Each structure stands twice: as structure tokens, then as C-alpha cells.
């Protein structure tokens, strides 16, 4: 009985992971979002995080400039457009 419960739990977790990944799929992948951000603000990429808000899926790309300034560029995952920069 314990084995069946573990199997069902594991199967549910795998299915939820696949559904989550598929729902985030957009026209722009992580690497493309980084390229867009670096074209706007050259430097070293410190972090890239997928994000979701009321307007849809986005990527937050944190970049460190050669002068030491940190910028966060937000890229729309469906269009590849910069929607915000901080």
C-alpha cells in the first residue's frame, strides 16, 4: 500500500512539473531573452529568472555593467520585447 501511495505521489509531481514547463513556453526562450537584454545593456549576466504577472510570462535578466552598475531588464516571453528596465 505504501508503494502505491509513493508511486501516485511521484507521478503527480512529475505531471505537475511537465504542465508547469509547458505553460511557460513562449516565443522567446531564456537564451534569446538574455541576448535581447545584452543588446540593450551590455555587461555580465548575473541572473535570469522566469517570472509571471497579470500581463503574462516574462524573464528578468540582471546585468552588471563594466562600470559596476546593476540593471534589471524585463523581457516579454511571448514577444521578446523589453517591457521594463530598472
Structure description:
By secondary structure, this protein is an alpha+beta fold. It has a domain at 26-85: Roll (Nuclear Transport Factor 2, Chain: A), CATH 3.10.450.40. 40% of the residues lie in helices and 35% in strands. The chain contains two helices and four strands; from the N terminus they run H-H-E-E-E-E. It has helices at residues 2-24, 30-40, and strands at 44-53, 56-64, 70-76, 82-85. Strands 1-2-3-4 form a four-stranded antiparallel sheet, covered by helices on one side. Strand 2 and strand 3 form a beta hairpin. The longest helix has 23 residues, at 2-24. The N and C termini lie far apart (53 Å). Residues 15-24 have low confidence and may be disordered.
SSE layout and pairing:
Layout (H helix, E strand, L loop, with lengths): L1 H23 L5 H11 L3 E10 L2 E9 L5 E7 L5 E4 L1
